[in-house]
Amino acid sequence: MITNLHIKNIGIIDDLEINLNQGMNVLTGETGAGKTLIIDSLGIICGERFSKEIIRKGENYSYVELNLYMPQDINSIDGNIVVTREIYANGRNTCKINGRLVTVSELKNFMSNYIEIHGQNDNQQLLDDKMHIQYLDNFIGNQIIHLKQEYGEKYKRYNEIKRELRENYGDEKEKQRKLDLLKYQLNEIQEAKLKTGEEEKLEEKRKLIMNSEKIAQNLSEADEAMGENTIDVIGTAIRALEKISSIDKKYEETLLNLKSTYYEIQEISRDISCYLEDIEFDEQEREDTEMRLDAIYNLKRKYGNNIEEILNYSEEIEKEIRKIENVEEYNNKLKKEQQELENIMNKIAQEISEIRKEYAYKLNEKINQELIDLEMQNAKINIKVDYKINEFFEDGKDKVSIFVKTNIGENESELSKIASGGERSRIMLAIKKVLAEVDRMPVMIFDEIDTGISGRAAKAVASKLKSISQKHQILCISHLAAVAALADNNYFISKKVQNDRTSTSVKLLNEEEVLQEIARIASGEINEVTLKHANELRKHIA
Fold it and tell me: Using DSSP, how many helices (H) and how many strands (E) does the chain show?
């Protein structure tokens, strides 16, 4: 059970602490006082998502702390459990269980064993076929668990095989389409006969071709300047220095340097002459270079950023082609395993379906009895189990749907098409009441599940909540006097303005205050008549 809830900086809640007790705890108060924020806080501590907008204005974090006491609980924990969650404006979360840091996912999984929250959204879930199968399976309990586990293992492998077959081109048309595409790509690359470094050389050649006229003109000028006259002049200088080189060492060194320059100039002159001879390009050579570069650019656009990447992709294509051409044998093994799994799954699913049909009949009887108690004497629930021969689902081959007939002489129809909001609330409560008998969930929270209900139906709803509280701690937000009257513990939620800030407060009511609150809820006024009525309602508390 929850023993204490501490909330800070959530909406208009500044710093709120609530000590809760076993049995049926009912929270009442004026609209906008903060009751829903308390439920939101419980959702946060149970690992639900949150919006940063929920953080109190002017603060940079919110904090929720929950104390649970679980003697010999389902997880072999005996004693107190302290769970905390801090949420910061920058989106950071800090979650702890008994001081140990945990992820939000771990927190959610842990708290799902202890607290179940039922809000007005549950009435919407009641219209979701996916939830119907969960209601039925929860009612069946242990008898179906091992079968669902066995089926689930096979179903997981079954989907793995289906995915692998898709990836391995198990479909013949897809396989041939992919082969055709890969072979076309491979042929296109191979026909190009690309060579590593080829593009760079072509780019250099293209640059020369584009500047050939300019290059030829300047090479001619350089060749003319470096002609025989220049070399002859240096040769004359060398011969002159040779005549005096023996006189002084410095003349000898200068002679050596000049001879070196002479040989270098001769080499440079020959190079320039060769460049000049090679600079001639015809138009065909220019067109061939441009076409080859265009072909390379086209392949780069499709298969890689450079020739090396294109050649690597070509190797990958060859491997993929060999894989596809040789995958048929492997796929045949997968298909055989798939067929074997289908046979096993069909057998398990048939057994699950038979159990579901048997228990659907029992669940119908129990829910319909609860509906009679909830002032829906003429309503009949019919949970139908439809076995789908050609389909496999995560939980078997059944589609489970809830049908209802609310009045005598009418045809039954799907719940979403026939029941009003108030009727759905009572149907949901009836289902929860039946499931609570087999449910080990310690704490059940109801957030205005009695919306749209009044009169005798309200008393019936209160009675059901009271009945559930015999085996579960109940925390209930309600606007019904009948519900407040049957509470073991009544809490009044109010708000006050202090220093230009609004904040929420909570008070555990004594018996006199409980009667006054019941009177206020029932008629909006507290007087002798309404207090007498409150006393009458209160006498029914168990």
Answer: 19, 15
Task: Tell which residue, 336, 352, 454, has the closest CA to residue 395.
Answer: 352
Q: Tell me what pLDDT residue 167 has.
A: 77
DSSP state of 54: G
The tokens describing 147, both together, are: 């079968």
Whole-number Å distance between alpha carbons of 122 and 118: 6
- The pLDDT score that the predictor gives to residue 542 is 43
What would the pLDDT profile of 105-150 be if each residue is shown by its tens digit? 999 989 988 888 876 566 566 667 778 888 898 889 888 999 999 9
Cα–Cα distance between 157 and 394 in angstroms, integer?
Answer: 12
Please give the backbone phi and psi of residue 510, each rounded to the nearest 5 degrees, phi first: -85, 175
DSSP 393: B
Alpha carbon distances (Å) from 348 to 28, 228, 401: 49, 102, 21
pLDDT value at residue 449: 72
pLDDT at 408: 79
Query: Read out DSSP for 83-127?
Result: EEEEEETTS-EEEEETTEEE-HHHHHHHHTTTEEEE-THHHHHTT
Residue with tokens 């699913």: 349
Contact 123, 106 (CB under 8 A): no
CA distance 454 to 419: 16
What is the SS3 assignment for 510? coil
Write the pLDDT tens digit of every residue in 345-358: 999 999 999 999 99
334 phi, psi to nearest 5 deg: -65, -40
pLDDT at 171: 65
Q: Give every CB contact of residue 65 below 8 A, 6+ residues apart in sequence.
A: 4, 5, 6, 45, 82, 83, 84
Phi, psi (5° rounding) for residue 381? -90, 140
Domains and CATH numbers, the chain: 1-114+441-542 (3.40.50.300), 125-152+335-438 (no CATH), 177-326 (no CATH)
Closest by CA position to 117, among listed 432, 368, 343, 335: 432
Tell me the two tokens of residue 506.
Answer: 């909570």
**Regions of the chain short of the pLDDT cut 70:** 72-78, 119-127, 169-171, 212-213, 216, 227-228, 279-283, 416-422, 450-452, 540-542
Q: How many CB atoms lie within 10 A of CB 451?
A: 16
State the Cα–Cα distance between residues 107 and 100, nearest whole angstrom: 11
CB 461 within 8 A of CB 480: yes
- CA-CA-CA-CA torsion for 258, 260, 261, 262, nearest 10 degrees? 90
Length of the chain measured in residues: 542
> Residue 345 and residue 396: Cα distance in Å, rounded?
8
Q: Tell me the C-alpha distance between 542 and 529, whole Å.
A: 24
CA 514 to chain centre: 45
